[in-house]
Amino acid sequence: MDKLITEVKDRLQRAKCAAALTGAGISAESGVPTFRGQEGLWKNFRPEDLATPEAFARDPKLVWEWYLWRRGRIAPCAPNPAHHALVTLEQRIPDFTLITQNVDGLHRRAGSRNILHLHGTIWEVRCTGCGRVEENRDPDLAYPPLCSGCKKLLRPNVVWFGEALDPAILARAEEALNKCEVLLVVGTSAVVQPAASMALWAKRAGAYVVEINLEPTPLSRAVDSSLQGKAGEILPRLL
Ligand code: BJW
Ligand code: ZN
């Protein structure tokens, strides 16, 4: 492990262009629940009941209750050493892009600047009528939350299963993955597309790909270095 750490550290030190792709595992040490695994959100909830447009159409109140409950869980959480390490990398590497699947906003709170939110953010609402997006941090949002413009129902500004990712964000992610010399893939189970394929896109384009995860994932055998352990412990060692 020490040898691998030194190798990755060297690569990062020499890189002029790098990227990171993060998932729920990077926020686990901050106290934010992950989706899959022992303590994951999907242990108690079925994704199809809560994280699909069909679920929202069927029972918007239930879906909103779940999101407000999650806002309440995330609100007291602070960024951890893994988030801070990525801020330092952004400051040191001339061209650094942070691509995240997370909706918790902890990368921004830590101080990362060049962030692509693939799956949106839990701290914004979007109107189902006119599409207007607004910041909203209210953990007790009264139901039904309505658009101040067209009075239609608001929804969380996140990407559910079966919905397309924002094409502009996806294009910027692709560009970053195609040009980076090093890609860090941190705390994702690598099962949700298209994010799950992004490490392979970068690898195909010539990047040195490093995975940091508590356990092996479907990506582990395809990457150049697989560092098994806590993101909050391993990432600071790469600086
Ligand atoms: C630690 C740690 C520590 C813990 N240190 N590690 C191709 C093939 C098959 C299926 C599809 C396909 N293309 C599309 C699909 C369908 C679907 C999909 O992928 N399904 C699969 C599950 C089979 N994808 C979609 O529907 C996507 N849309 C799409 O592709 O649209 C195409 C389209 C085009 C044109 C028109 C219409 C459509 C959208 C996906 C949206 C995902 N949404 C969610 C919810 C977001 C909002 C919310 O938060 O509520 O995103 S689902 C959920 O999973 C969330 C996450 O971002 C995402 C990924 O989870 P993540 O981050 O990997 O977390 P976990 O919990 O799974 O893993 C945590 C990991 O951390 C574990 O590995 C731990 O070991 C590790 N860990 N502690 C380091 N301390
Ligand atoms: Zn509206």
Which ions and ligands are bound to the chains?
Answer: ligand BJW, zinc ion
Kindly state the percentage of residues in helix: 25-40%
**How big a fraction of the residues is strand?**
15-25%
**CATH topology (level 3) name of the largest domain:** Rossmann fold
Name of the CATH class of the largest domain: Alpha Beta
Total separate domains: 2
Mean pLDDT: 96
Task: Give the biggest sheet.
Answer: 6 strands, parallel
Q: How many E strands?
A: 9
The separation of the N and C termini measures: 15 Å
The total count of helices amounts to 10
Gross morphology: globular
Indicate the CATH architecture of the largest domain: 3-Layer(aba) Sandwich
Give an account of the 3D structure.
The protein folds into 2 domains: about 1-30 and about 80-120 and about 165-235, Rossmann fold, CATH 3.40.50; about 35-75 and about 120-160, SIR2/SIRT2 'Small Domain' (2-Layer Sandwich). About 35% of the residues lie in helices and about 20% in strands. It contains 10 helices and 9 strands. Strands 3-2-1-7-8-9 form a 6-stranded parallel sheet, sandwiched between helices. A hairpin with a 5-residue loop joins strand 4 and strand 5 (about 135). Helix 6 (about 80-90) runs parallel beside helix 10 and helix 8 (about 165-180) runs parallel beside helix 9 (about 195-205). The radius of gyration is 18 Å and the shape is globular. The structure holds ligand BJW and zinc ion. Zinc ion binds next to loops.
Keywords:
239 residues; alpha/beta; Rossmann fold; SIR2/SIRT2 'Small Domain'; 3-stranded antiparallel β-sheet; 37% helix
